[in-house]
Amino acid sequence: MSTLLQEKARELLDQNEVSLVIGYGEFFRRTTDKSPQRIISPVFISKPDEAKSLIWNDHCVYNLSTYLIRKEVKAHRRIALVAKGCDVKSICVLIQENQIKRNNLVIIGLTCQGVVGNTPHGYAEKCYSCQLHTPNLYDILIPAQNRRSTGVTHAPERGEKRDCAGNCHEICQGSCHGSGQGNHEGNCQGSRDGSGHGNCQGSRDGSSHGNCHESCQGSGQGSNQRSHQGDCQGNCQGSRDGSSHGNCQGKIDQLDRMDQMDRVDMMDRMSSIERWLFWKAQFSRCIRCYACRNICPLCYCERCIADKSNPQWIEKGSLSGNLSFHIIRAFHLAGRCTNCGECERVCPMGIPLSLLTRKMAQVVKDLFQFEPGLSPGIKPFWGNLQCESEQSVIGEESFINGKWNNGKWNQGVWNNGGKR
Amino acid sequence: MMVPSPDIVKSKTKEQRDWHPRIVVFLCKWCSYSGADPADIGPLPHEALIEIIRVPCSGRVDPLFLLKCFEKGADGVLVSGCSIGSCRNSMGNYHAQTKLKTFRTLLEFCGFDVRRIHFSWPPPSDCEYWAKVVDNVVSQVAEAGPFPDMCPIPDMYPNRYPNIYPNMSSNMYPNMYPNTSLNLDTYRYSRGGK
Amino acid sequence: MITRFITRNSIRELIPNLLTAFHVVAPVYSGNVTSFKRISSYEEIKWLDYNTDKPPKEFFLPPSDDIFQFQQHGKKIVLTEPVNHHAPRIILGVRPCDAAALTVLDRVFTEKGIDVLYTALRDNTLVIGQSCPKPGRDCFCTSVGISPDESRNMDIMLTDIGEDQFLVNLVSSKGEDFFSYFSHFFQESAEMSGSGYEPVQTREVAVYLKKEKIFDVRVIKKWLDTHFENPFWADIAARCIGCGACTFLCPTCHCFDFTDESVVQPIDHRNGGYKGVRRRIWDSCSFDHFTQTSFSGAASRTGAEAEAGTGAGVWTGAASRTRAGTGEGDGAGAGTVTRARAGAEAWAGAQAGLRAGTGAGAGAGTRARAGAEAWAGAQAGLRVGTGAGAGEQAGLRAGTGAGAGAGTRAGAEAGAWAGAVSGAGHQRRTTQEQRFRQRIMHKFKYFVDLFQRVACVGCGRCRSLCPVGIDLVEVLETIHDLFYQS
Fold first, then answer.
1. How far apart are CA B139 and CA B48, in angstroms?
2. Within 10 Å of residue B175's Cβ, how many Cβ atoms?
3. B4 touches chain A (CB under 8 A)
4. Beta bridge partner(s), residue A108
5. From the list C245, C321, C473, which residue is nearest A348 (CB)?
């Protein structure tokens, strides 16, 4: 709870164990709306009295370990940092890479049930596959946070089918336009008897239709069993008797696997040229503000290669430069990035950067069975390559028997079987 | 549309059809260079132009080099190092393999045509091997076609194809989360509400 | 003042006509953010209630703008004009804050020396603005002297009066010319269902029109004048991560940098040597390498520079990246450059100097730090002044000398620059606190000192798009309170 967090922070500062506590604070921002906007922003506390500004709820999205690499913060003798499970992974990597000393850091670990984000369920994408509800490294543990926004206790887990207990209301934006009553009750809106409502913009009797296709994940057992049970197929847009089905069914598969790799899989299934056009379109919007690089806790080079101008390696002001920058940055984070998702969140142009980092994490995991950030004692991957055998683990390209064998790189690694 | 079909190729002007694949080759100075230098490759298929860059070990090749090659006008890249077990620097080629192959996955994810990027790890001083490698690389790069997209100043290379890919619009991307209503504060502070 | 009306349908019909002769730019959805882009049909226009995420600044100060192309032949470098297309443009849907930001850009780029790239774009643009029907969530334009219905810098202003109709005000002569060509698309009277018409405004905008102020900029300036050092700055800037998001998305921020992008000619080496382009790109004072200048090899400016009265001189380090308008010697030194385009080179120096003059607050005001700041001005001003880095004098020279007289002045002073500035990668503002302070100071104090105008237009983009949620209004309100407490 917030108060436990505040007490602990105050203790640490009172007893002079730390000289700085970095945590989440709530601010009230003046807007042109009638009421001020409550936002969360990092706070830096050095006096015990200020500890009451610390807060912990499901809107605490930031990865505060990014401040551990700032020299103003490093100048403190010992600091305390408030960190969720995903943040602690970044801290582990920083410890592995000798950027911070474990002894100089007091980790106030937060038991986290998911933070808000930009996905249909309202959670951050990283929360869907999170196994670290309790951080794997901490000095003090704070129990789970207040859920400010939704009444649900935790993010849906992979494969979990869940009743739409009022959660759906952002998603089901239309009524499943089958006809008939009872169609939606319990499905797209919350209460089973249909008394709850959200912005399911269709009418209850199904006469208007919307684009429900992602939402009805719930097991809605409305009156018509065949159409509603489990899969929502035939619900959304189908007729009541399930004879036709709409695009709900494909999406339900996706939602079942709604995890970090979902969008990456979608990208993998595209052809090479589609991917190229996609990234060209995305990176032509990049303004090279470097928000992604500066918010990343693992981008701590004092002089980034992108800023180096003698000689100049990465251009500015051109699409190829933007591509180079992001590809190189993703590569420099391979085996180090813990997928906190901050880079994508902070991008002012909304470029899906975490696709790159997640792909890299997937590749490193598949090929080298390495996942960064699980423990501070593990040696970093790139610094400790061991050649295990004559045939290297990644398969060797070789010219065997008069035929060119490119190893597995051109065959079957991609879900489309390497089609161009 | 994947690769320009033959009728598109025929419809190009002679100047455009005179495109020669430009390939940059990084050779480690031990196994690869000693195999490549004396190799009598003769005139290359498609009259390809090959630029050789000798490096002390294939581990020296930073992935950024590959991108710079494309930016400077290459159509294909080949990195060649010693075969496993014969690296003069004991493990340099292993580092190279790990880095570069991981990098190639990333490039393929970003849509680079993987036919443009090749690695080979020849046994020491094997000229025949080398010749076959080059043949293969050149044919694959020629199949992939020209690659002007990464060049910063397109008008600098007039004897290239114009961009053969369809015009991209900045709205062309698969909608990752269609119909999400962003009522929540996502801390990108979507402006003004929807 | 002629009053006319236009409906959305008429605009739909007008657009294809405009597209035949102009580039038409309007708010569109670009991915999942809104920005201004060139459109090719009416359907692409997104009629927004509030302002776009990305301002139309890029149409006046492009994020990447070619200045000249160069081609090296042995020891000579030949400069050629770039192929810049300055087709006439119409920007539709500009809000009063973004239009007022053009005042700031105009002052910077035309007052103390004409920036030809900027004026070419500015003169070729017709701005059709739209008054705000409702304020964005983060707007605070009235606090900085702008109101949601003002038409400064617009040529034509549209006011939404409901039922898909707009009230049209022709503000400038350019607007009137435009109207005279296309008058058949406009109506004399509104075809409203009711008897009269009223601008569509929410209650909030109505309140705004009463010039509601959150803070008083004069109070802010007074506090900033006297509180260069204050623990407040460390507190407020602790969260800042030093990205450029707020600056690049700010409609008034104008700092830039130069970069040379070049390639070695193709393998056939027909021409040999470098060929490339010099670009002016956006830069941000929040970056940790802003104003960082590195002179490795640049000290080899020869005595020939002394004849730089004409701006023609010898300059080593060709085809190298310039930082803050300074020639960073490549060290590798790809031969020498003969200034074929003295005007361009000197102009580049002038621009950078001007930027340094304003950005670093060189020499103006704060004497307490004048040494540092003014020297930074000299540094970044480059090729301006004696560059001895000694105190305010040099800084002042840098600020004014570079600014005034684009062209010859900077060229002349280049001669005096006897390689005395030999800093090696010196950034004066080494902590994020200093850089954050600079940003606030520049907007609300330095710019006021130099140009008598607050450089902020209250669009609120920096507030909504800051990665860590730093709120400019909170900063200013705190300053306000601090002033009254002391």
1. 9
2. 10
3. no
4. A82, A140
5. C245
